[in-house]
Amino acid sequence: MAKMWAGVTSGETAKIADDFNSSISFDSKMYKQDIAGSMAHAAMLGSKGIIEGWEADYLIDGLHTILEDLETGKLEVDPSCEDIHMFVEQVLTERIGDVGKKLHTARSRNDQVALDLRLYLREQIDEITEKLKKLTLIVCEKAESYKDAIMPGYTHLQRAQPVTFGHHLMAYAMMFLRDVDRLSDCRRRMNLSPIGSCALAGTTYDTDRKLEAERLGFDGICMNSMDGVSDRDFALELSGVLSILMMHLSRFSEEVVLWSSWEFKFVELSDAFTTGSSIMPQKKNPDMAELVRGKTGRVYGDMIGLFTVLKGLPLAYNKDMQEDKEGIFDSCETVKNCLDVFSGMIETMTARTDNMMKAAQNGFINATDLADYMVKKGEAFRNAYKISGQIVAECMEKGLVLETYPLEEYKKHSNLFEEDVYEAVDLKACAEKRISEGGTSVQSVEKQIAYVKEQLK
User: Fold this and answer.
1) Annotated catalytic, 277?
2) Residues in CB range of 188: below 8 A, 6 or more apart
3) Domains of the chain and CATH, by start
4) Which of 80, 184, 261, 277 is catalytic?
5) pTM recorded for the entire structure
6) What is the rounded distance in angstroms from the CA atom of residue 410 to the CA atom of residue 397?
7) From 10, 156, 278, 436, active-site residue
């Protein structure tokens, strides 16, 4: 079948070349955006007198009908068409005749595809942002429930200092808040219209690019026509933002995997978000967390693929840029799926606060507080540090913890020790004394929760 672009060439291409060249299998996702862009373009052409007013109305009505038929299933995308743009124009021309051939006046597929991609990814950003906000609020609610639950905080995966589980969870809420901000910032730069750039040099028609941009909800237009058709920075940036978001989800997943193991047993995951083993009946596997962790590499791969496609392209449009879609589409779908399952997993997760407290006690994570106790009574820090280490070693040897170490034994190391030492090493008190902004005290965690919720508004 001869192509709509047949001109200097016959338009008769080999089937193998057609299949290789075709993008409709994946760019058909953008049918709504393509039709919306064509409606705005037809309206602009009519308002500027480039085509008759009735022709513009006729085009818009025809496009409305195509959209309705695609939405209801009355019309299906023809996989033999080269791309979604050609499909829509072909169906329109078949339905309304020669007027349909006027739709492509003062535009090219180069600026048309750039427009569709911006519109589609803008919508994806909005969907991802809402799902991310939902997860962030779930994390905040979970942090509120466990704002005073003591657990060991870790550095180098070694027990370090006492924190609350609520405080630990809010660290992820802060990461997600930055992700929301990055998505918003990316959307702002993306929200410029390339339509009217045409193939690369603009057009001889007296168009109104700003009117068309306004109708499509853009903040302005791409100010250079060559940049308008060849820029994919917005897709690269979104790919990077999604990679950072997945990295945050992956780190959280890693902790969930550790916490739910028998070695930690800090959390219990709902049966709805775990799986069993085919031969080991005792197993309860954190597969959802592991899959999110695994899919992070997939999103990274999409990002690297897109960077590689664009790295050596001369201006302006090149067919290589057809490869810009599958990766970023896959990343968007992957992230949305991960956010949905992660929200359910965290919302139904319960904390084993008894095991958290035992781990905190056995890890001697209040040793720094013991040293601080002596320093506040006049001991030099280095001496206090050494004495605390000696006491910890004795506790480990005798099966004791700092809270049960006898006062007479404390006094053998320093006359500064009094009965109030037990208040100083009480784990809840140790956490509650961290009153600096952003610290682990209950009051601080409450402030963090309020801050995140306010920012999300």
Assistant:
1) yes
2) 219
3) 15-105 (1.10.275.10), 110-143+163-206+215-357 (1.20.200.10), 367-425 (1.10.40.30)
4) 277
5) 0.93
6) 15
7) 156
